[in-house]
Amino acid sequence: MIVVIDFGSQTANLVERRVRDLGVTTKFLPPENAIKFIKQNNIDGIILSGGPSSVYDEGSPTIDAEIFRLGIPILSICYGTMLMMQLSGGEVVSGKKEYGPAVLTIKKKHSLLGGVPETSTVWMSHGDEIVRIAPGFEQIASTSHVPYSIMVNDRNKAYGLLFHPEVEHTEYGDMILKNFVELTGAKTQQKVLDLEKIIEEIKIKVGDSIVIGAVSGGVDSTVAAALTARAIGRQFVPFHVENGLMRIGTVETVKRIFDHIGVPVEIIRCEEEMIDLLSEVSDPEEKRKVIGKFYIDIFEREMNKLRAQGKSVKYLLQGTIYSDVIESKGTKHSSKIKSHHNVGGLPDNMQLELIEPLRTFYKDEVRLLGEQLGLPQEFVWQQVFPGPGYGVRIRGVLTKERLERERIADKIVLDEIIRAGLFRKVFMSFAIMTGADSTAVKGDGRFFGEVVAVRVVESRDVMTSKWAHLPYEVLQIISSRIVNEVPGISRVVYDITTKPPATMEWE
After folding, report:
1. What integer is the mean pLDDT of 213-230?
2. Same domain membership, residue 218 and residue 169
3. Are residues 344 and 413 in the same domain?
């Protein structure tokens, strides 16, 4: 077994997932309980995760320094490495910052880096700097910005990385984790996504009750719905809320999905009501909470109708996945990035219990489950779309006029990505009404209108992403069409920010 100690990183559970993918049994623990568990069990290795805190801050999460004297191989990541340095006699300060890609250069060969070339791209996310490494440690790799990027202490079997090997965009991250697993001597076995186990768990939890389903037509809610329908059949009652915030054609897509699944879906149309609720809300967090509460109000209304018919309605199904949870502060030491409408945006006094069969899975795992369920490729591989929809792609107050502009601009982006043959090569592509205005010249006259931003990213599991290097001619067509076909738009800009530091969405 390898223990992953969670200091609150957005990708802490991803570390565990990567190690499990290598076929190793894992245990995810908060630092407060770690030492006791490690002493009571046969542990092959320890991984210290990253985290949002600074090790020198009062109240920042820490761990008993005894952990470094147990003789168990330890791999530390980012904050975990800062903490290992501080507790072992090194020095950490607020210094050089690195967010996103950096070029790692190996200074000395080491078994931890077997198969890793002399230079490679790694993903950084730190605002502090190690200015003195602890006694017994040796620097073996650096970036142009930060000298201490990998440090090792072979005598104590301690290995520190300042970057994140678990994220997709660290080129040889899986290799480094594999090398560490081999250093620990942990036994491995092939990992399999157990579809039937998930279905059986749904059956056991639900029993004879009715499950109301919140289905958006997106990948996550589609796979969650297919799993639930497979488990309980007509005890599953799905609803699609047509609130005006979804992409053009979503209702038709939802109907096709549930024709395929074999369970009828009810469409609830409430666009005017939704727009009225958002008409004076500009704060992104408040928007998410308004949308989340609105959904729950609707589903509880439907619940009461079914209960009036004598049906035992107990659960609300949601397609929540792990990235939703962690960004909404999913663990004790993690930082809240934003309230996902189906996690942090939910009201406290819900009458329905949640059932979330995908809560511990990542996006790529969800797609694999969809394929195992036999869902058509067009459903499994459709682009990601946020639950709050255009509500979080329109910066500032949402009006009918701005909503219509967003619909047109967003369709243009998607149409041109498809036309260029890039749909399966990018993870998501969309337009944002930025709320910023700029001057343009239209018809030889001055025009002052809104700026549209276009964001197209490549990712696998939503935890990290990089901007897509679209051909210039595709960008030109998108820009020209938006300024010509969408009323009130002055110019188009292209977002070239990685995650981190940016999130996938703007709000």
Report:
1. 92
2. no
3. no
